[in-house]
């Protein structure tokens, strides 16, 4: 079946896209989804007259304030997956959601380190074409960050229309990998839009958090060789070969041959995987690749689609080839300017960068490389700030935190590219500490 709808079908669908079901799912779906595993609200959020983005929202289970009197103070987090074109339900069911699919048994297990413990979390299949967000036509898939940012703002406006109290709640955009572009572009767009909108239409954006992000490729592509060499994964001869590929990638970027630059960068990752023998360059400490088929099979069952309020006619894929192809020219473009716009905004928007140490794609060295190029008056103070050892409440090492002004950087031990899922206790402590400004994010040495 084609993943695209006819225009007529799309218009008909939009009559019901703002699904806010509160009734119980069919009994068979309940077997797969315990009550607490099913979203609080779910469905589709209008972004254009013919298209919508799928979302699943989970309200906080143990909020920082007591509803209903202070419900407007409970933060909302938006989670966006990378790719480009990967579904945010990966984050939901493999990393930080309330229930996770941890093996091939198709049984959901409760996640004690869920991000919706203190906050409401909105998983959005973004951009259009990813996950359950099927476009009306293939031509509707975005080809640039500007369009994606506009779609995300439209989706957030649709979400906030579901319940007036949502608009007052502090909002944080979070995600990983290619969301290192989605997030700053969307944040910059929201801030620009807020300046022109009436108070009752503004988005209460308070911060952005990017995990192992691809944000400024021209700087990040220069450190693949160093990351692998100083981790002991390659020797000097292999390092020199990677550096040659890096130089070719840089030359292609500067010549604006971005699709070719993307292919060359992909060859770097493939070369590193081959010569190192690691199971996955996303986390070179893993003994096996990340499982992918169980979640695909699970989310394509009728029971799962019914429980999630997803369209039954859409086949869920982890990552969309169509979206990846549409954004071929976008991959090697920079979003550094959007990060700078966020840091310079008069609204004092906070920025958190976090990385797992075992990532050969966009690890700590990769992020530091582009952060050093920020055009931001606070950069000197940030680079001079202490890199503090960060431990959990039980004394376990979680990683390292460096912060100054609006910018914080957290390095998570025992984790790779999907840091939020690789070290869930540390990731939960990090997001709660950063949002609430406690633990290492207020200057003390521990976090709960």
TrEMBL record:
It is an enzyme of class 3 (hydrolase). GO terms for biological process: proteolysis. PROSITE patterns: CARBOXYPEPT_SER_SER. Residues 1-29 form the signal peptide. One of its GO terms (molecular function) is serine-type carboxypeptidase activity. Keywords: Carboxypeptidase, Hydrolase, Protease, Signal. Its EC number is 3.4.16.-. InterPro entries: AB_hydrolase_fold, Peptidase_S10, Ser_caboxypep_ser_AS. Belongs to the peptidase S10 family. This is Carboxypeptidase.
């Amino acid at each position: 079946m084609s993943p695209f709808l006819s225009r007529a079908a799309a218009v008909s669908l939009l009559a019901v896209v703002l699904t806010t079901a509160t009734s119980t799912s069919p009994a068979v779906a309940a077997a797969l989804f315990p009550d607490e595993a099913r979203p609080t609200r779910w469905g589709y959020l209008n972004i254009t007259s013919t298209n919508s983005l799928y979302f699943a929202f989970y309200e906080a289970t143990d909020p920082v304030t007591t509803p209903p009197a202070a419900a407007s103070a409970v933060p909302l987090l938006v989670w966006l997956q990378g790719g480009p074109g990967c579904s945010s339900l990966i984050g939901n069911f493999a990393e930080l959601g309330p229930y996770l699919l941890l093996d091939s048994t198709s049984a959901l297990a409760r996640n004690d380190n869920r991000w919706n413990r203190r906050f409401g979390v909105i998983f959005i299949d973004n951009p259009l074409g990813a996950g359950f967000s099927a476009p009306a036509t293939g031509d509707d898939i975005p080809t640039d960050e500007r369009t994606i940012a506009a779609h995300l703002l439209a989706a957030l406006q649709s979400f906030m229309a579901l319940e007036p109290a949502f608009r007052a709640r502090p909002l944080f955009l979070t995600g990983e990998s290619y969301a290192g572009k989605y997030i700053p572009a969307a944040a910059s767009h929201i801030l620009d839009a807020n300046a022109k909108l009436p108070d009752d239409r503004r988005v209460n954006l308070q911060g952005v958090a990017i995990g192992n992000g691809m944000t400024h490729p021209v700087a990040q592509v220069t450190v693949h060789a160093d990351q692998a060499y100083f981790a002991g994964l390659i020797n000097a001869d292999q390092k020199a070969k990677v550096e040659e590929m890096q130089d070719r990638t840089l030359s292609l970027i500067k010549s604006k041959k971005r699709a070719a630059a993307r292919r060359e960068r992909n060859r770097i990752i493939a070369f590193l995987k081959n010569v190192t023998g690691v199971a996955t360059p996303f986390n070179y400490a893993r003994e096996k690749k990340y499982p992918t088929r169980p979640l695909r099979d699970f989310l394509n069952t009728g029971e799962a689609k019914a429980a999630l309020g997803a369209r039954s006619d859409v086949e869920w894929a982890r990552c969309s080839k169509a979206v990846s192809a549409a954004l071929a020219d976008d991959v090697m473009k920079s979003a550094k300017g959007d990060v700078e716009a966020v840091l310079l905004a008069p609204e004092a928007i906070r920025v958190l960068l976090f990385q797992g140490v075992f990532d050969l794609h966009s690890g700590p060295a990769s992020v530091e490389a582009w952060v050093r190029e920020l055009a931001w008056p606070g950069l000197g103070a940030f680079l001079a700030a202490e890199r503090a050892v960060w431990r959990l409440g039980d004394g376990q090492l979680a990683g390292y935190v460096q912060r100054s002004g609006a910018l914080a950087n957290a390095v998570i031990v025992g984790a790779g590219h999907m840091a939020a899922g690789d070290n869930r206790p540390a990731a939960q402590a990090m997001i709660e500490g950063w949002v609430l400004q406690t633990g290492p994010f207020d200057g003390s040495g521990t976090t709960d």
